[in-house]
Specification:
The structure is a homodimer. Chain A is α+β, with helices and mostly antiparallel strands. Chain A has 19 helices and 18 strands. In chain A, a hairpin with a 6-residue loop joins β17 and β18. Chains A and B meet through β9, α10, β16, β18 and α18 of A and β9, α10, β16, β18 and α18 of B.
């Protein structure tokens, strides 16, 4: 099965992924939790937190669809007025405006762990007041043009898979769900470009391209649920970034609807006609407008793929090897390097590493023929080829990790991820600093901190951390404290506050420190020009 | 001789390149001019234009350095006041402020053909009122912070090699010449990055990097005179872009001085922390601030290089071949394809093409080992390998073409270049449309229109046109009319108004049409935030 065969995951609120996929923790994982002092809530000695309730307990997490029950707190928000609803219906048709609790609950927040914990606690304070489903760029533009007059803020929603904090506009607001913008508008085989609408979810976009023999090659871990518009708005980067690049490197054109009109960018792959404004819109996270379509570079579908595991003596040894590939090539399509702890946690069977002598696991993947020259570089750098077994294990499980978070939360574990990037020379100290900051901040519930590299560039790389520990009595506060410490460690060690998750609300303060107050003012000036009434995603980014 | 051995060209106003290099037109070229009806000014039947004057006539083009004579018209501008001069001296020291005519004349305009023609006509209307030479970022920042109070506009100047029109602030203005910012500040061998100050000219930067074993790999045709700051401000692209990328792709960090303070960007190669603001500053052409240094990706110096000529039956056949390399690889470092007319004009010896049977010439170059796989793609696409001869001829003459313009002007020819880029599917029609527009607009003096492709991407390519015809009585107006027609043809055929020359004043109207009024407003908002008094490069870009 390739990516284009995967179904779109219709996410349910408060629990990751396709609900038809039951994920159970392996026995080894349950054992490991005991070693971290993690106890299922309700068990003797477990905290009274919101860890999911005892087995069989009702948790207020998932609405089954529009009309399903939602927490009582949701009703506290005022209903939209008749004129507001009439305006929305006049643009998209009344059948495409919903204000039932189920729909609103299903469009609340994203999928950070604190988002999930607040779902579990029944917190509906940031539920939208209505969900609107436009079918075209013009409908999106008309909504944005009229919302100020109708005193409505707008939260764009395409995949809903953010993990960096949603927002809670203080006034009435609607969510604009882009799922009806789901067309492959154009495919130019000579230029190898495709025009994709923003509401296309990852698998749907790949499926449409596959029918024509092409692939986008963008496979973030959120692939099953995330969308083209979300990739663009948040500068996404996928697991095949070594071969296909980041999403912002794939975009050669885009169309943005703003409250003041439309901006269309991209007459050529590259230009010297002023600043590259595409890169000003990409990453603007809905603060400047709603991206309704993008023109992306596509490539022929590979006819073969190869995934392989490699063992290195240590993370440092592996780091040197992947840097060599990033700087002198030839790069594979997928290149990942786990550190010692992540390797140990992820490998149920340590014999994979050739006898349990420790070391770290790297994964390489090729879309297309196997490239022996890549393997030769790894061998020269001290790598040991473990063959296709670990590679295929990784490939087939690549979208599973986020599914594990919910049962881990059920078991009383706090589990969350964070990520950064830096130039190569800073990577070792950055990794140490972030790990120590997390361990220090969570010393009351000693954590495991796992780390891997999954995106490389000539001048640097990303670092992706996973944290697992026992939940305290107040796990939201527990995580926010740890996250605060990690953010400071990242800044002090010279990393960027996010490599591919985005800014959202979780990183806003750190983001402002990173770019400086004058750059923030410049962004605010752009925002004020395109969205003078502050209708769009208030509080996000800037 | 490699690029790092070349001397910096101390440009003289109104005539391209190192004045110690005497360039004479080959006899074949002089013959060709006759076929275009081009006559040396002063000859019987030649127009009375400003084509360089009769042999031996004094042309008011080149000041020999500070203190040299300059056209009388220059004295019409008011002198700076005592307080203005005192302010400038207080920041940089009085020895680094010059207001003699020679220095000011030497910092007037750039090197477009209309710039040169206006030099030849003695037009000094846009001469700066003083030239200031800061030595550090802090001095640049202090200048910018104080200029509004002292009623001075600022024109940044690093290499002075613009070919898209300078500006003429209506009030008093100074030129800030960055040549004293000429340091390699840092070189990080692990990350393969170098911090270069903005005033470093191309050969000086390469020389400093070569001493450490590295290269930037950025070799635009203006290489001898252009500077790091200019590359950044104008989104330059060099002749080795197929291998090294554009300059904006090399920049991973930058420091910008603005009237309101400093912006520093770039904690990592790539980030999801909001829009990529580096790409908002790159290409801003001095309208937002002065880039004082950049952090660039560097690579090890190649130990071998190979250049080769290839023949294709037609431009269309060559186009398919270079597109195949751009989309499926492996790309060489240099990839150029001339059309039939450029091939014929540039080849004094048509036997190079293997018997004078027509066809077009492509050049490929490798920094590093020869890649047979690249050659195999060209062969499969119908290419015929002409060997190293034509490749070496191109390599050794690669910076000579602009030198030929001045003697061509002397001979009464109008010669100028323009360029664009588009997606592959639009390239053939774009080429035809621009050529026809130029031929139509210059029908009174039938032109030769040469074209080549020298920058390729997966989704598209650049087109570079050279136009040669007889000068009319008013060659400035003659060219502006042709340029206007070409600009419209580019827009109508879906190209960008400039691939690597920049916007300047020549492309401002077309640029605004390309990005739209709302995007222009957004840029103006950024400008107003960073430069509220409009001190910087008034009239440029936006």
């Amino acid at each position: 099965m390739t990516e284009s065969d995967l179904p779109v995951a219709e996410l349910t609120p408060g629990r990751w992924g396709d609900p038809s996929q039951v994920v159970e923790l392996p026995a080894a994982a349950l054992d490991a939790l005991k070693h971290l002092g993690i106890k299922r809530p309700g068990a003797a000695g477990a905290p009274a937190g919101v860890g999911g309730g005892a087995p069989g307990a009702e948790t207020p997490r998932a609405a089954e669809g529009p009309g399903a029950s939602a927490p009582a707190g949701a009703a506290d928000r005022p209903e939209l007025t008749g004129p507001q609803l009439a305006f929305l219906a006049s643009v998209v048709g009344s059948e495409h405006v919903t204000s039932d609790l189920g729909s609103r609950w299903a469009h609340t927040r994203g999928y950070s762990t604190t988002d999930l914990l607040r779902f579990r606690a029944g917190d509906a304070s940031d539920m939208p007041d209505a969900v609107v489903y436009p079918a075209s760029h013009d409908e999106v533009a008309a909504l944005l043009a009229g919302c100020a007059e109708h005193d409505l803020a707008v939260v764009p929603y395409s995949g809903g898979t953010s993990v960096v904090g949603g927002l809670a506009p203080t006034g009435r607001f609607i969510t604009v769900d882009l799922r009806r913008l789901d067309q492959l508008v154009d495919l130019d085989e000579i230029s190898r470009t495709a025009t994709l609408q923003a509401g296309l979810r990852g698998p749907a976009a790949e499926h449409l391209l596959a029918e024509r023999g092409y692939t986008l090659g963008h496979f973030p871990q959120s692939y099953e649920g995330a969308s083209i518009g979300g990739y663009a708005a948040a500068r996404s980067s996928g697991q095949s970034s070594a071969g296909y690049g980041r999403f912002d490197q794939m975009v050669v054109g885009l169309t943005l609807a703003t409250p003041r009109g439309t901006i269309e960018l991209g007459r050529a792959p590259m230009s010297a006609a002023g600043p590259d404004l595409r890169q000003l819109i990409l990453g603007s996270e809905g603060a400047f407008g709603i991206i309704t379509s993008v023109v992306v570079r596509i490539r022929p579908r590979p006819t073969e793929r190869h995934f392989e595991g490699w063992r290195f003596e240590s993370f440092d040894a592996g780091l040197t090897a992947v840097r060599r590939l990033a700087q002198d090539g030839p790069l594979p399509t997928v290149l990942r390097l786990s550190d010692e702890i992540e390797t140990a946690v992820n490998l149920a069977d340590p014999d994979v590493l050739g006898g349990g002598s420790g070391g770290v696991l790297a994964i390489i993947g090729f879309d297309g023929p196997y490239n022996q020259a890549t393997a030769d570089v790894l061998t020269a750098a001290g790598g040991e080829n473990l063959g296709e077994g670990p590679g295929e294990t990784w490939r087939t499980g690549r979208y599973r990790a986020p599914y594990l978070r919910d049962p881990l939360l059920d078991e009383g574990a706090l589990v969350e991820t964070l990520e950064t990037a830096a130039f190569w020379s800073r990577i070792p100290a950055l990794k140490t600093a972030v790990t120590e900051a997390l361990v220090d901040a969570l010393s009351a519930t000693p954590p495991l901190v796992l780390c891997h590299i999954s995106h490389v560039y000539e001048t640097g790389a990303s670092l992706y951390f996973t944290v697992i520990c026992a939940q305290s009595d107040d796990p939201v506060e527990q995580w926010l404290t740890a996250k605060y410490a990690a953010n400071h460690a990242i800044a002090d060690a010279g990393g960027t506050i996010t490599h591919h998750h985005g800014v959202g609300t979780d990183h806003r303060t750190a983001y402002h420190a990173e770019i400086g107050s004058l750059a923030v003012e410049a962004l605010q000036a752009v925002k004020h020009t395109l969205d003078p009434d502050g209708v769009l995603n208030p509080g996000i980014l800037i």
